[in-house]
Design a protein that fits this description.
The complex is a heterotrimer. By secondary structure, chain A is mainly alpha-helical. Chain A contains 18 helices and 6 strands. In chain A, the strands form 3 sheets. A two-stranded antiparallel sheet of chain A has the order 1-6. In chain A, strands 2-3 form a two-stranded antiparallel sheet. Chain A has a two-stranded antiparallel sheet with strand order 4-5. In chain B, the strands form 2 sheets. In chain B, strands 1-2 form a two-stranded antiparallel sheet. In chain B, strands 3-4 form a two-stranded antiparallel sheet. The chains are: A mainly alpha, B mainly alpha, C alpha/beta. The interface between A and C is large, with 54 and 63 residues.
């Protein structure tokens, strides 16, 4: 079905179900419970981030997972996509369709140029070339160097590009919403379902992003299984030998790079559609590094691993960083005071302002104990529950590819 | 002319810092083949050794002075440093004054230990793992080290003064027959430059003229063959790691008076040092040093008002622009060896 | 610290069960009828403190957080009440806001716009916050202010000094108590004239981002108004670290004054390095070379150590002021934490109290009611003398402090001294001033959400 083999189809349907039900699945605790206030992640803004960053790393995985070429400047394409989308909002209207289309096109153009140049080198030289391009683009956007040169605003510098009331918006009609919308349906339109103590928020913007992400995921499965994908893997295992067979590998590499860049641009366009303000720091090297780290954390070369990695990092960033001492005391309120204080003292360095520490320790733990990333954890758990024969098979031939 | 001369000095000074960091990084990254994202953290530890030394020398006992009051109106507590009560006021103050150079006594053992512990405890298990795994584990380590430093020292930059003997400038211009004051350069920056040159020379001499160095160089070129000769190359690589950590730490320590240390200072230098190493060429120590100085000087020139008037903002992108040009015209950077990290 | 287990949602749950688990198809969860986002339910109200807890401004953010926690304590009737006792309005009686106990959530902005917005969104969507307060950067303030405008909650800005926050990027739902670049210039101008005369040549080094640009524009206008010439204005990359190649040309430019439009780590490094280059020992045009840092903060002054001695700058507030409000605040803060508060902490503390008071006077949490209550609101007793929240741009107008690095500090907090309290009249400007977006800048309409 859908041109997928049964294993891939199962995985795809699982991802479909998870994304559709995410507002419910990620709100496992009643909204007013101490656990719910701390750990529930099913609110629209974070759900959007999960799927948008998921889309970003799915695209990155097509390049890094299949070809082994490590781009250290991928956030640049996310950035140009975001800027392109906001410019569409400023010039045309708040309708997200032209914005998203242009963000893919612009990111595509940038990735053709950068890819053409950077792919003339391989290994670490390639990585540093992509990094150098991205850092230049960051500097140009952060201080709006192009804008200064032209005497106008292009990126609006550090404050970020946003839509002002006096922007032209030539396609906007008077009754249109003043926020991004799809033919009048606002991105932040939502329905809240209260069941007992639980509250589930279903937001239109999230579902739009989720559908785009699913389309991207489907396409990536097809690419992984296509002759093109096989070719990329062959290049990865031995590029020299591929060249000896008389095959020019360059066009394949460039195609992978551009596809991957377009995914990033699409993610950027979606990000702007959900939240129409974009700044240069989205292109800083740490943002590119984060994409790399998400992929490795989840499991490079696996279809779904990078998405899990992206989800985990965004979860930590948004959830752990918000836990403060007051919340900790609330958790342990039922305990005797001395135990309460002891536990809070122990946990304190790892939450709130210390969430980076948790992140760093997690990176180290995963890579030391789970060389295959989070996907390996999944396999281990599956093995533990005795789905041995089938799931092992899945893992080896289907989902998992060696990292390098 | 004098403007150009000052910018060359600035470039040499900046370049000395880049070269020192890149030298340590290339020992680990360019030769052992480990992508060490924690190298910036090593630089930072060195800088914080200087801070720690200063704090240690300023450890004080508290004496309550009833004649003065603090901000809440309570009697003021006056601090008397232990060093001054032990060595007498003048000698104690002199020791405190020299805390940054003195912290070399702390930096070398600490960095050797950190390098040894990192290699034995962590990196050793990652020589054969994919570069992606090395990135993740060392990046995680860098974050953890940064957070630990932040827990003890806070997030603000910490002023770390140089010895008062080196405060002020040297009027280099008068030596060259220029007007007084035309080329006045801070004394500590000159010290830094010569210090860096000495460290670089020492590392090269060590690798060139000792048996150890010979074995290591052979090991870099062909690890397996050297191993087959019955030489325990791993042990020597551990020491190499310690050496690299030391070089980074020394770079950080001496830079502390110029750049007030804060917990994230390592990350600020990290990307730049990778660029320097790669532009120099993988596996080449002279390449790393050369690239450090070339990029330092070019950046200084790009920061000149005359240049910025023609190309606004060029100072922000020059390093990356030059890196791209060099890598496109010279496939393996300035002096890279074939086959190192090209897969 | 302990928290009540009662919450808005507790009541919501009861209501929902009573309503036979009906879906509530509104943006406002259960309170569509109340007409604004996150209307507090039950006997608590939740506000969000969004400050940098990691990154370069982490210390400043954590100091803001301390003051915000103190403000919540005082609002809830704990502690000694701090500035509630000196505030000219007497509506707040320690029973929370409108009888609802104040709860708070905290978030980390990392001083990045994207992260700050994500954190604010989580406070609004997940925690049900009715007001967001804090921050330590103008870029972040503008970004979060825009978000709060869209979502329909109130934003009480923390430390943000760019003209844009209440200039071209002003928003109806956003309020700034902190002063701005223009005010720094207007306050510094006369003091500099007295101190250094009318014939100086100034050389600007400016951090290359929006705050730097607006501050340079303001200071340049102020110094040129007192007859100074501007020798050169040079933009430096943010986080440059080594400023040597920008400082070296100053020596031979014929300038006798260096103005550092830098903040945070950039300020610490550029000032330290400028002193190392011997700038302050030089004589140019027969005058002693001088350095000016237009925006000071205590935490950064501590980072720059002895290099700031004798350097002029400006501040929104300082703990050494001797009015009753300042004394009350410094006392409660100092007794709780053991050191004096920074001016970032002060502005967040005051903003929180001002919000609570505005809600009380409006009699509603509805953002539009709060906006109305705050606009053109006059108050006193908060450490800055008589102050007005101007309705036209939501900027506070009050006295500005001109500071100087202290020559002989007696303790580690005694780094700056107050040179002059510039009266408010001298730093006022028209709401349509060209540096503030001109006539086109508009607040828009207040947005209560939904």
């Amino acid at each position: 079905m859908l041109g997928l083999n049964s294993r891939d189809l199962k995985l795809f349907l699982l991802v479909v179900a998870m994304t559709m039900l995410a507002p419910i699945l990620l709100n496992p605790f009643p909204a007013d419970s101490a656990l719910g206030e701390s750990f529930n992640a099913g609110y629209p803004a974070l759900l959007q981030r999960f799927v948008i960053f998921g889309l970003l790393v799915i695209g990155f995985n097509i390049l890094f997972g299949l070809t082994g070429y490590l781009s250290f400047g991928h956030a640049a394409f996310l950035g140009v996509g975001s800027y392109a989308a906001v410019w569409m909002f400023k010039l045309l209207s708040y309708n997200v369709i032209p914005a998203i289309i242009l963000s893919v096109i612009v990111a595509g153009i940038f990735s053709v140029v950068i890819g053409y140049v950077a792919l003339r080198r391989s290994g670490i030289y390639f990585s540093i070339l992509t990094l150098a391009f991205a850092q230049m683009m960051y500097a140009i956007a952060y201080s709006d160097l192009v804008g200064k040169f032209l005497g106008t605003i292009v990126t609006n510098g550090e404050t970020g590009l946003q839509v002002y009331a006096d922007d032209p918006q030539i396609l906007a009609s008077p009754g249109d919403p003043v926020l991004p919308h799809l033919f009048g349906l606002e991105m932040n339109a939502q329905t809240v379902l209260a069941v007992g103590g639980w509250e589930f928020t279903f937001q239109f913007g999230y579902y739009l992003s989720a559908l785009v992400m699913l389309a991207g995921f489907y396409l990536s499965i097809r690419i992984f299984r296509s002759p093109f994908g096989m070719m990329l893997r062959a290049i990865k295992s031995n590029q020299t030998r591929m060249s000896y067979t008389g095959l020019d590998t360059k066009p394949y590499m460039l195609a992978a790079f551009v596809i991957s860049g377009c995914y990033a641009g699409l993610a950027g366009g979606l990000m702007s559609s959900m939240d129409p303000l974009t700044g240069g720091e989205r292109m800083f090297w740490t943002a590119s590094g984060e994409i790399v780290v998400m992929s490795i954390l989840g499991g490079v070369g696996t279809l779904i691993g990078p998405v899990l990695g992206a989800g985990l990092i965004k979860y930590l960033e948004n959830i752990i960083s918000k836990i403060n001492d007051g919340i900790l005391h609330q958790w342990f309120a039922f305990m005797p005071d001395w135990l309460d204080n002891l536990l809070v003292t122990i946990i304190h360095p790892f939450v709130g302002k210390g969430w980076h520490l948790t992140l760093g320790l997690l990176f180290m733990a995963v890579v030391i104990f789970l060389p295959g990333g989070l996907m390996q954890l999944g396999e281990k758990i599956a093995a533990l529950f005795g789905r041995k024969t089938k799931s092992d098979d899945d893992a080896k031939t289907g989902a998992t590819e060696p990292a390098e | 002319m004098d403007v150009i001369l000052v910018q060359i000095l600035n470039g040499l000074d900046k370049g000395a810092a880049y070269a020192l960091i890149a030298l340590g990084l290339t020992l680990i990254f360019g030769t052992l083949g480990v992508v060490n994202f924690a190298h910036g953290a090593l630089f930072m530890i060195g800088a914080f050794c200087a801070v720690t030394m200063q704090r240690f020398l300023n450890l004080s006992q508290t004496v309550i002075d009833e004649t003065q009051t603090d901000f809440l109106g309570n009697p003021l507590k006056v601090e008397v440093p232990y060093v001054q009560s032990w060595f007498g006021e003048a000698a104690g103050a002199a020791i405190q004054d020299w805390s940054v150079p003195l912290s070399i006594l702390l930096v070398i053992p600490v960095m050797l230990f950190v390098g040894w512990a990192m290699e034995r405890g962590l990196i050793k298990h990652f020589y054969k793992r994919p570069h992606a795994d090395q990135i993740l584990v060392t990046f995680g380590l860098a974050i953890v080290i940064g957070e630990i430093i932040k827990a003890f020292y806070g997030a603000n930059p910490i002023q770390t003064p140089m010895p008062s003997a080196f405060i002020g400038t040297i009027d280099l211009g008068t030596w060259l027959g220029m007007d007084p004051g035309a080329v006045a350069y801070p004394m500590w920056r000159m010290v830094y430059f010569f210090f860096a040159a000495a460290v670089i020379a020492a590392v090269f001499a060590f690798l060139q003229f000792t048996t150890f160095g010979m074995v290591v160089r052979a090991g870099m070129a062909d690890r397996e063959t050297v191993g087959m000769l019955g030489i325990d190359i791993d042990k020597r690589f551990t020491l190499m790691f310690g050496l690299a950590a030391c070089v980074a730490g020394l770079a950080g320590m001496m830079y502390a008076p110029i750049l007030s240390p804060h917990y994230n200072i390592g990350m600020d230098f990290l990307v730049l040092s990778f660029v320097v190493v790669v532009v120099g060429g993988m596996g080449s120590l002279p390449g790393a040093v050369l690239a450090g100085f070339v990029l330092g000087i070019l950046q200084s020139f790009a920061s000149m008002n005359e240049v910025k008037a023609i190309l606004p903002g060029i100072d922000q992108i020059i390093i990356y622009l030059v890196a791209i040009i060099i890598l496109l015209t010279r496939p393996r950077g300035l002096m890279g060896r074939k086959g190192v990290m090209e897969e | 610290m302990s928290k009540s287990n009662f919450s808005r949602r507790g009541v919501l749950k009861t209501g929902a069960i009573a309503g036979a688990g009906l879906a509530l198809p509104t943006y406002l969860r259960a309170d569509g009828h109340s007409g604004f986002t996150n209307a507090p339910q039950g006997d608590t109200v939740k506000i969000g403190f969004n400050v940098p807890q990691t990154g370069p401004y982490a210390e400043e953010g954590l100091d803001e957080l301390r003051a915000q926690e103190l403000a919540v304590e005082h609002l809830n009737g704990m502690g000694d009440g701090g500035m509630l006792n000196t505030f000219s309005e007497k509506n707040l009686d320690g029973t929370g806001i409108l009888g609802k106990k104040v709860e708070f959530v905290t978030g980390d902005t990392q001083t990045k716009s994207d992260v700050a917005r994500a954190s604010a969104q989580s406070m609004i969507q997940k925690d049900g916050c009715i007001m967001i307060n804090g921050g330590s950067s103008s870029g972040v303030a503008v970004a979060v202010q825009g978000l709060c405008q869209e979502a329909g909650v109130i934003f009480m800005a923390g430390l943000t000094h760019s003209n844009d926050t209440t200039g071209k990027d002003r928003k109806a739902n956003g309020f700034r108590h902190f002063f701005n670049g223009y005010m720094s210039g207007a306050a510094l101008g006369p003091v500099l004239e007295n101190e250094y005369g009318n014939e100086r040549r100034a050389y600007h080094l400016t951090a290359d981002y929006n705050w730097g640009w607006t501050q340079q524009e303001s200071i340049q206008a102020a110094t040129e108004a007192i007859g100074w010439q501007t020798a050169e204005t040079v933009l430096t990359p943010v986080g440059a670290g080594d400023f040597s190649s920008y400082i070296a040309p100053v020596l031979n430019s014929g300038a006798d004054t260096l103005i550092l439009n830098h903040y945070g780590g950039d300020m610490v490094n550029s000032l330290t390095q400028a002193v190392q280059f011997g700038l302050r020992d030089k004589q140019v045009n027969g005058k002693d070379f001088t350095i000016i840092v237009p925006l000071y903060s205590e935490l950064m002054a501590a980072g720059a150590g002895s290099n700031i001695q004798g350097v002029f700058g400006s501040m929104n507030w300082n703990w050494q002021l001797q009015d009753e409000g300042t004394k009350a605040f410094v006392k409660s803060f100092g007794e709780k934490y053991g050191f004096p508060p920074s001016n970032a902490a002060h502005t967040c503390y005051v903003q929180t109290l001002l919000y609570a008071d505005a809600v009380t006077r409006a009699g509603t949490f509805n953002p539009c009611g709060v906006v109305e209550a705050l606009e053109d609101f006059d108050f006193d007793g908060m450490g800055n003398g008589p102050t007005t929240y101007r309705g036209a741009d939501h900027q506070c107008f009050k006295d500005v402090l001109v500071m100087k690095g202290k020559e002989n500090p007696t303790n580690q907090y005694d780094t700056l001294e107050i040179v002059e309290v510039t009266p408010r009249a001298q730093v006022e400007y028209a709401a349509d001033h060209p540096m503030f977006g001109g006539a086109e800048a508009s607040l828009g309409d207040c947005n209560p959400g939904a």
